[in-house]
Amino acid sequence: MQVERKYEQWKAITESDFVTLFIKTWFTFIAVLRELNPDVDVFTADGMPRGDKPFLNAYKEGWNNFEIERSS
Description:
Layout: H1 2-5, H2 10-36, H3 53-62
């Protein structure tokens, strides 16, 4: 009766898929913020990485300043 055991771990597999999707989405979001804000300092004066916070702050401060070109 292996058919009964086939879907035994469906919840764990589904949860791991959601976690993987979240991680991929987060890194894609941060990569887009890096492209949109190339002037943000990635490292501190000591050479230590600053993480994602500088990009998130730049997004919070200037998200409505983007201009969209519309073709007539």
